[in-house]
Amino acid sequence: MLSLREMKFAVTLAKHRSFSNAAKELYISQPALSQAIKSLEAVLSTKLFDRGDQTLRLTPAGEEFVREATEILTLAEELERNMRSFSDDQVLSVGISPFYGRYYLPRSLPLFKKQHPNITLSITECSSNELEVLLSEKKLDIAFLPLPLRDMTLEYIPVLEEEIFFAIPRNQTAEYEQETGGNSEIPSVHLRQFARLPFIYLKDSQRFTQLGNALCEAEGFSPNILYTSENWETIDAMIGKGMGVGFVPELLVDTKNPTKPRYFRIASTNNKRQYVAAHIHGKKITGCMYDLIRLIGKR
Q1: Could you give the C-alpha distances from 289 to 91, 206, 276, 281, in angstroms and in order?
Q2: Which regions of the chain carry the CATH code 3.40.190.10?
Q3: Which of 7, 37, 39, 65 is most exposed, with minimal Cβ within 10 Å?
Q4: What does DSSP say about strands 262-266 and 155-168: parallel, antiparallel, or unpaired?
């Protein structure tokens, strides 16, 4: 009977198409991997890899083997995780973007640890798009993401609603405060007032861009984008230095810091977005997962 170890060897080799690179990932020697693949092909009585012309290619049988072996390995990993959920000692794999992780995790994880001292959290921090891929590959139990999700097969649990604010340099605020009523700590503005100003914007790869464009279009203009960034904090800092105007999430709003921009609420019903805990379809959401979701969503 084939072992999961042999399947993993073949799948990893198919991924790298290189014995040396695959051996590094598997933490074995290259000769040991080569011998293991030869033994596997002998057991199966068929070649899985064509080693001719210095290029490693899958044979038709190899393609079928790797496809089915990948499914079996994924099922085996899921089975192991499900069985661990019955144990007092669990590992919970959680994904979050670096920006949101910086704000939500330090206040949530100590409380979670008090509630679940035997659970180990494995935190993966990367972009929302990368987190969706890791979820679909079943490498994460849950991932905290802003809507909309790009993978429509994923399911989610609402965590919190995030308000989006508009920021402008403090040296440009006088006329807008007068128009909107400066008595309010955070007054509201219509975006069309800023249509001719340069915008500091998130890159198109960021999922907020769709909402930002919609907010501007609803006011009858397209933003004049001067700079783009992948980081909210960079945008906030650039606006604070007088380089343009732009959107920022409520996590960055600080009305007391004189080095920060001046913040305004956006006069629109579409100025919020949902932050959710996403998971694959049919995923069993355990009690500890619900507790973590509740703690992150707690204001």
Answers
A1: 11, 26, 13, 15
A2: 84-154+275-297, 161-273
A3: 39
A4: antiparallel
